[in-house]
Specification:
The protein is an alpha+beta fold. The chain contains four helices and 14 strands. The chain has one domain. The longest helix is centred in the first third of the chain and has 24 residues.
């Protein structure tokens, strides 16, 4: 239940990312269309909540099946890309910074030891029709997650909570940050770059994670993850002020670093800086350590016990709605 609460806090924060887009797109949906979307969203909400909260495995899987079928039928409605589905609190609905697509992701728990991920990428189309890429989680059947380029059919599986857009030589690179409950003892957070091939199909991963500036050289990876103790609160997010992806330096609480379920933050931060089409690893971001209980800026929408701070959420949402929509993610 503890991991479930953590997931829900994370998913609630994801809604902030979609708020500006829902405002910009709202004028494209006619009142008659809006009424139909809201009606369908009410049914989707029931299934979405049961995916997470239903007590029995068969109930969760049945809710997931019903949710997928109804979601696809709803997305087939014209201009569905403009509808934000704000009440689906257990489903991540994340728009790309340039509004070229959005990603739906969620988690399905089989038992205390097994978690599956479901998802789909919906592309923005000029005529409002549906172009959808279902995502198929095969992480449990693969042992080369960090050194393989993948398609939607062999996706690694994660609940995405951030998309960072960068460009290099005129091409767009979308970096996806995601959360994975993974096991009863440990949690993972993922980072991978998604591009689109010449046919417009999503491609996950590539030679984008570089450790060239490390004193001990590591190979270039196609994606990167941290794995840590289930109860540990960790940072793994993009900091726009630093223009870096930051993550906690992890140490074993009982001197067993090979046991990922013992890893907790030590107060230092590592990171990645975008350089010439790659995320280059930075071994030590700050020259100081944070005191116990302190952590970087992304903490501000939460109270010390991990619950959303409603006032901060509202303030952040209002700020998001005032931000102009950027055409790209910078260099």
């Amino acid at each position: 239940m503890h991991s479930l609460k953590k997931s829900m806090v994370l998913l609630f924060s994801l809604l902030l990312s979609a708020s500006v887009h829902s405002c910009l797109f709202a004028q494209r949906i006619r009142s008659s269309e809006m009424k139909e979307f809201r009606k369908r969203e009410d049914s989707l909400k029931h299934f979405a909540e049961n995916i997470v909260f239903a007590p029995e495995t068969d109930q969760r899987f049945r809710a997931d099946s019903n949710f997928v079928r109804m979601l696809v039928r709803t997305l087939r409605l014209k201009n569905s890309f403009a509808y934000s589905f704000d009440s689906l609190r257990t489903i991540s609905r994340l728009y790309a910074p340039d509004s070229a697509f959005r990603v739906f992701t969620w988690q399905l728990k089989k038992d205390e030891y097994t978690f599956f991920h479901r998802g789909a990428i919906q592309m923005r189309t000029s005529d409002g029709s549906l172009k959808l890429f279902p995502l198929h989680d095969v992480a449990q059947f693969s042992d080369r997650l960090n050194d393989s380029v993948r398609s939607p059919r062999n996706w690694i599986g994660a609940i995405y909570y951030r998309i960072v857009l960068k460009t290099f030589n005129g091409r767009k690179y979308y970096t996806l940050l995601g959360y994975d409950d993974f096991s009863s003892a440990s949690t993972r957070k993922w980072m991978e770059v998604m591009t689109f091939d010449d046919e417009g199909n999503p491609v996950f991963g590539g030679k984008y994670i570089s450790f060239k500036d490390d004193s001990v050289r590591k190979p270039v990876q196609t994606r990167f993850n941290i794995e840590y103790k289930k109860e540990a609160a960790t940072t793994f997010n993009y900091d726009p002020d630093l223009d870096m992806i930051l993550f906690d330096d992890l140490v074993s609480e009982n001197n067993e670093p090979s046991h990922k379920e013992t890893l907790i933050p030590d107060g230092d931060f590592q990171g990645f800086k975008w350089e010439n089409g790659q995320w280059v690893h930075v071994d030590k971001v700050f020259n100081f350590k944070l005191k116990d209980g302190e952590f970087p800026k992304e903490k501000t929408i939460y109270s010390d016990d991990g619950k959303p701070n409603e006032q901060k959420l509202q303030e952040q949402s209002e700020k998001n709605q005032k931000k102009p929509l950027k055409k790209d993610g910078g260099n």
